[in-house]
Amino acid sequence: MKATQIFALSGILGLISYVLADGFGVKPNNPQLPGVPYVVHDGTRPQPRMVTPGGGGVVVKAPSDATVLFDGKNLDAWTSKSGLPTWEIKDGAMIAAKSEMTTKESFGAIQLHTEWRCPAGRKVQDQGGGNSGIFFMGLYEIQVLECHENKTYPDGQAGSLYGQTPPLCNATVPQGEWNSYDIIFTPPVYDGEIVKEPARVTVIHNGVVVQNSRAFLGPTQHKKLATYPKTHPLTAPISLQFHGDPMEYRNMWIRPLGEYDQQAK
Question: What is the pTM of this model?
Fold first, then answer.
């Protein structure tokens, strides 16, 4: 093959890889999402409108019935595949490193609060440089991503049900400042192998509602259409994703939602 032919072929292959890639402005060859004219990780989907929150990350102290997952002092509530927490602590924040971490305790329906940020001055582009995620039951991801001036495919933006539903709006603050999440998650309800009620989530980002009791299509997938398995745990640990970026978290606590009409003790 001549050099000119090799050059032309490499250009064609590069174009094909670009078309098939996931990113802002790109419509990849991924499965169609139900109910909308977009595919999974569709970079041509409309960008959520910007909303400037009333302030930066909302700081909320842990209620009396909460389990504190991180108070700036230690990682006692966390573990990893190695059996030990792998993240670092600096200036009251835990910094993503080495691998994902999971809670030692398992949870079902919960309320979670945390604050997170991407370090100032770090290069961020699309899904790279400022990426992490919170996985409820280790299965359902709410995306954590620096998105104040960083465009990406909308179902991979901060506050999205990753690979499924973009946020109602973009409420992220400038890079280097703290964001907050207040999240209410309920697991799916099964009747045998049939899903009677899907998992749902409400996400409040910096005091702004960005997901309103939104249903998950199933456990989070990458480039694939999410579906529910035939069996599902009642409770499971929460995971924090390490995506290669030193994302920071602080003030993380969680409380079970409980049942209505509980007798006071």
Answer: 0.91
